[in-house]
Amino acid sequence: MKILKVIGWVLAALVVMSTLVYLYASWQVDQRLAKQYNVAAEEFPIPTDSASIAKGSHLVDIKGCRDCHGDNLGGKIFADELLIGKLAGPNLTRGKGGIPDDYATLNWIKAIRHGLDSSNHPLMVMPSLETSKMSQEDLGAMIAYLNDLPPVDNSVPESKLGVMIKTMIYIGELDVIPAEQIDHTATLVKSMDTSSPVKYGKYLATMCSGCHHENMKGGPPMVPGSPSVPDLTATGATGRWTQEQFNTALRTGKRPDGTELDPNMPVQMTKHYSDEELQALYTYLKSL
């Protein structure tokens, strides 16, 4: 019986220590999310013509905005689990529960280019590290489309990080605070360089870097239990696939042998790439 008591006390001590460690880690993450950034966000005229709005709609598709904010961008909950937490993409329209009527160009730029909310606090999960590299021309077209959205009445709860996500952020195994990594002083490029497929493909591949890294070599799983992130370069699948097979994989989520890609692969995003965009992306990845 004495040994059982000792084991009980040891287990109790471990529980208390683990709880204290987590509480400290949670506080540290909360402090990072409460940080206010002093950012001089650029402002520029936003087009209103139909061609720019149509281009903006396409950009919203291929940047994955609808995956988290819903098909109509009226917001949705895309994760709600005990360990992960409740993750929601807010309503981006001017309907009830959406952005306020005075939400201006500067607010869009802060969110998309700097990963910050209107009060200069970091946004969570938002892929601003990737969209921060968008050209002024593309950013303007995207904002033009967002400004033109029909109002959707939908109130979405605020995101709350769960125990596992907070712990992974604290130990450096997960990046969901893009504002910490963005170069907020970087010059805004006027327009993207499409002078060659490789340059155009490199620009497009920015959206792939969040999972596959800057070198597109992939690496360990993004979250525990998920498959490893694959190599997209010439030494990986891209080197083995033809352009047609590459296109099919990104549009259907299926490899040439018929097996499904990793469920974390955002096919709902990549299926909207045009033939020209897929050719440029394939050419760039094959060059690596």
Key terms for this structure?
metal-binding; mainly alpha; Cytochrome Bc1 Complex, Chain D, domain 2; membrane; transmembrane; C-type cytochrome; three-stranded antiparallel beta sheet; 288 residues; 44% helix
Structure description:
The chain crosses the membrane at residues 6-25. The protein has 288 residues and is mainly alpha-helical. It folds into two domains: 1-189, no CATH class; 197-286, Cytochrome Bc1 Complex, Chain D, domain 2, CATH 1.10.760.10. It has 13 helices and three strands; from the N terminus they run αααββαααβααααααα. The chain has a three-stranded antiparallel beta sheet. Strand 1 (76-81) and strand 2 form a beta hairpin. It is globular. The termini are far apart.
Please render the helix and strand layout as text.
Layout: H1 2-34, H2 50-62, H3 65-69, E1 76-81, E2 85-89, H4 105-114, H5 128-131, H6 136-147, E3 160-161, H7 163-170, H8 197-204, H9 209-212, H10 237-240, H11 243-252, H12 267-270, H13 275-286
Antiparallel strand pairs: 1-2, 2-3
Helix pairs in contact: 1-7, 2-6, 8-13
Pfam family, one: Cytochrom_C
Keywords: Heme, Iron, Membrane, Metal-binding, Transmembrane, Transmembrane helix
Protein name: C-type cytochrome
Helical coverage, percent range: 40-55%
Secondary-structure element series:
HHHEEHHHEHHHHHHH
Total domain modules: 2
* Helix/sheet category: mainly alpha
Order of adjacent strands in the largest pleated sheet: 1-2-3
Task: Summarize the main sheet.
Answer: 3 strands, antiparallel
What portion of the residues fall into strands of 2 or more residues? under 5%
Q: What is the count of helical runs? A: 13
N→C terminal distance: 64 Å
Radius of gyration: 21 Å
